[in-house]
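The record is passed on directly below:
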Amino acid sequence: MQTNIKIDSLELDALTDILDILKQICELEGKIKGANECIAFLTIKETAEKLNWSIPTVQKLFNRPDFPSCDYGKEKVVEIHALINFFSVARRKIA
């Protein structure tokens, strides 16, 4: 089910900046398998550092049922492409 929401220009600019940062992260990881294929995972702490968000905010993000994280041992991780794809779709704020 897809929900339409209004996004103002400041929010759109912020999302665009986040996507640009995530793409740069993918390029910097250096784990290139193919021409455009990057397989790299980020922990909660690494994601918080890269997005310049607080760890509690990122923990809430990782605990969302629609967020593509998975457990790797005792840590939750997210694949970089899944993170980019997650932010490329507009979503409603969950309280």
